[in-house]
Amino acid sequence: MITIQNLTKVFRTEEVETSALSGISLEIKRGDFLTIMGPSGCGKSTLLNIIGLLDSATDGSYKLLDQEMVGLKEKGRAAVRKENIGFIFQNFNLIDELSVYDNIELPLLYNNVKVADRKQKILAIAEKLNILHRLKHYPQQLSGGQQQRVAVARALVNDPKIILADEPTGNLDSKNGNEVMELLTDLHAKGATILMVTHSDYDASFSQKTIHMKDGVIFSERFNQRNVDVFMDAK
Amino acid sequence: MIFNWFKIFIYHLKQSKLFSFLNVLGLSIGVAGVIFAILYWNNENAYDQWNPEKENVYEVLNKFGTNADIWNSSPVPFGLTCKATIPEIESITFFTGWYSEDVIKHENQKWIGKKIIVADYDFFDSFPFPILKGAKKDILKEKNSVAISDKTAKLIFKNEDPIGKIITKDNKPYIVKTVYKIMSPSSVEPDYVFGGLINEDDLKQWGNFNYTLMVKTKKGASKELVLKKMQHVNFVNRTVKEAKDKGVTPEQFVKENGEILIIIDQLATARLHGTKSPNGANFPEGRGNLQLLYIVVGLSILILTLSLVNYINLATASAIKRAKEVGVRKIVGASKKQIIAQFIFETAIIVVLAIIFALAIVELSLPYYNNFLKKSLTMNGGEFYLQLIFIFGLVIVLAGIFPAIYISNFETLKVLKGNFARSKSGIWIRNSMLIFQFGIAAFFIIGALIVNSQVSYMMNKDLGFSGDQVIRVPFRFTDQAKKGEKYRTAKQEILKFTGVQDVSTFAGSFGNGSTSSSGFTYNGVFVQPRNIEMDYGFLDMMKIKIVKGRDLSPKYASDTVSNWLINEALAKKIGLKNPINTIISSGWGNEKGNMKFKVVGVVKDFHITGLQSEVPPMIFVTMKTLKWNNFENVYIKVSPNNLTETLAKLKTYWEKNINPDYPFDYEFVNKGFAKTYEEQVKQKDLFFILNLVVIIIAIFGLFALASFSMERRLKEIAIRKTLGAETDILLKELSKQYIVFCLIGFAIGIMPAYILLQKWLENFAFRIDVSVVPFTVALVSLLILTLMIVLAKAYQVTKIDILKYLKYE
């Protein structure tokens, strides 16, 4: 679904040139659950932003659904983004002035979904995420975990091809964090494609594959062995 | 503490130089407007306030029966009878109700004296100017007395003592009896007060309304009582007698002919609130323009309000940026009061700057303002500075208190935790103020458009006459009896000049009306038409049409004896369907009783006074019919070619043959008539300038507010963009609410604009109707302006870097 080849990103200021990504190659297939890890400044967020079409690459190739994304104008990126990508952020990024219902509705509005369908979809996703009783509330009235569930609902409501999660548990306590991770695992089990950035090994262990980055390059890839638990029990 | 406050104030000032500057500028424009209004207000309300007798002195006016005509003149015997029979009246004076100019001589000097008043009886009782030299009482008792102002005395006599010296006017000698000091402003500020106004004939003439009568009552006398007694004097001496002459009861007479109604205006309030008469000002210094005063004061208050609203809006909006500072201050121990004090302190500094700025604006534009008002206002006087301090206090209270309290109420914890920048706090009040601003802007735009179309209507109205290429030249010939003869000779000679196409005259002037009017009753209807004595060919030269019958002509001998023309207005008033050949008994009598006239023609109505009033009923007779010779101007139609040369020839002729003492003077008739709407043209210009000011302030306010509220929404915009919002959708989203505010504000502005402008238009007998056009134009232009500003700002914010706001806020 996503093929990245030799992708580079260079930040230029007047005096310094910083290379955030240097020659990244990566492939994400339909149904993958990938985690990117690495220290601060390693370029993982930049990569995520480029994949999410919030940022553009300097060089290389990024194909989403066999379409070349590098060199696309803002308008084209916005069009692809709204149809295909769902975002989950560390700080939720909900609009405080809008109710939960209205927040979830936003992607549907921008994708010109009909009124009747919108309501149906929102109710369906809210039920799935167990926030049905919160639809009339405003984000500031909810706990962190509930807010993140709203954000997940918003990311999913339009059935995106891929979900990008940027440290989704970073602002949550462990109980709420766990809930969110289970939610993602659940989604993955049902066939969703997920790309996640995290600091936490524990969170990463929920995914199929973890990529480690440092100084703008990928230096290791490994498959996570979820059956490790089985070994532990057998011991 | 104050130093700390000052440091942070300077910091913020430097941080947003443009906004701070515009803020001060906006406020100073508002304050400047109020200063202008105050200067005008003070001046108009100061008239006659120096006069210790202002409460006891009254000007007498007469309202003529059914006719709405009001004159500021009274017959001499009426005044004298009042004085003799009403004990409350202490003294009276008659004087010419306007300033005249005359040639004055002293020894071998000769000059044209201006601001001359001729008076009789106790002029200096009603206008007790301080006497500097000479007699203090009975100043005008001798017919050959004159009193002069100290300035005039200095001019004529230098350092000599003027008392007892002789000056001549009209070749008659007058002895200087008194030197007085002019107190200003006053309804009368004469340079000369000559005695000998009243002659033997005047003493008996109850029908001659020639001079202005002032009465001074005893202290504490009731105005109503005096008025009632004066009305009674009129009834006994006029109505009863006239009824007796006609052989009817007084009641019957009043029913048929109406009655003269006496009006008295107290000097203390006469300048602004005196009775409006259609025949010019009641006093030589004119009347105060109460309407313009109210307009100026009202508009200046509106503009100040607008700039205050702007200030409050910006202050509360930018206060959010300072929420953290306030939080920290509170944590380290500041009380709510101290926070309020700090922000009021900041407002005070800004207001001081704004007032200094405003004073500079006023100082620079005062000459234009004075020119506009025809005044010479200056910024001084204890009263003015007190008012300035009052404005200072008022602006601080209005502009400062609200934002200060708003800021001091920030909740410390919320503020410090962040996220406050996106708080909704105070937003509704800012929005409603924005709506209010839109309302004011709508009011101004609509007002300016309506005033503008009324003025252009007046400028383009068909006046019923054509003054093109016709000049009015004052004809000052002192021998009244020979004036007509002199005119006819002069006419023959002037007509020979190349460049002179026609010469004619009539007793009146275009714009100011006629000089006399006489009442008569026809068919039981009393009318008081204007008397138009005119030369043959006058109507033709002015292209005034005859709708029925014929013009007066030298071919018919009876035209100088018993024929006249009437205008349409008169025919309508007395109900004549077929006026031609109707015999009407006129208001003029000779030894055989009332003179009778036959109507030989009907003149199409033309405007002789401004468009404020209806065309009055008029009658037209030849100059030879009555031989009053009360024309004061000659009308000359000149060819546009070699105009300078023609004028030079006329000048030479005038100075040689007509009156060597006066400089030759002329005015185009069209220009003279344009003076009747000069006032409105000024109001139009005033509205236009204020409109610019208001729109600039409002636009700036809108821009600033839109900036603040959009910047508050940057994160929201970033989120929306992330979710796929495209630029045009975002632009719509961002500008939508301002369009709604604009519409609401406009709706609020409509009613006051409609009502006030209707009221203004009621001043005019000939006026436009208020159509939807100005409202539509105002709405569209307001919407366009709003869209331009909001979209510009919105476009700028949609171009933000999404990542920055998603990550770090």
How much is the average pLDDT of chain A?
85
The radius of gyration computed from the alpha-carbon positions of chain B, rounded to a whole number of angstroms, is: 34 Å
The helix content of chain A is 25-40%
End-to-end distance of chain B, in Å?
33 Å
As a percent range, the share of strand residues of chain B is 15-25%
The stretches of 5 or more residues of chain B where confidence is low (pLDDT under 50) are: none
How many β strands of chain B by DSSP? Answer: 27
Counting helices, strands and paired strands, the structural category of chain B is alpha+beta
Shape of chain A: globular
Ordered list of secondary-structure elements with their pairings:
The complex is a heterodimer of chains A (235) and B (809).
Chain A (H helix, E strand, L loop, with lengths): L1 E11 L4 E12 L4 E5 L6 H8 L7 E6 L2 E2 L5 H11 E4 L11 H11 L4 H14 L15 H13 L5 E5 L7 H16 L3 E5 L3 H4 L4 E6 L2 E7 L4 H7 L1
Parallel strand pairs in A: 3-8, 3-9, 6-7, 7-8
Antiparallel strand pairs in A: 1-2, 1-4, 4-5, 9-10
Chain B lengths: L1 H14 L1 H30 L10 E8 L5 E2 L4 H10 L3 E7 L4 E7 L2 E13 L1 H4 L4 E4 L10 E5 H8 L8 E4 L2 E9 L11 E3 L17 E6 L5 H24 L3 H8 L2 E7 H7 L16 H30 L3 H9 L4 H38 L8 H27 L3 H5 L10 H34 L9 E5 L8 H13 L4 E5 L3 E2 L3 E2 L1 E2 L2 E3 L2 E3 L2 E5 L3 H4 L4 E4 L13 E5 H6 L9 E8 L2 E11 L14 E5 H4 L6 E6 L4 H16 L8 E2 H6 L3 H35 L1 H9 L4 H35 L11 H26 L3 H7 L1
Helix pairs in contact in B: 1-2, 2-9, 2-11, 2-12, 2-21, 3-6, 6-7, 9-12, 9-14, 9-21, 11-12, 14-21, 14-23, 14-24, 21-24, 22-25, 23-24
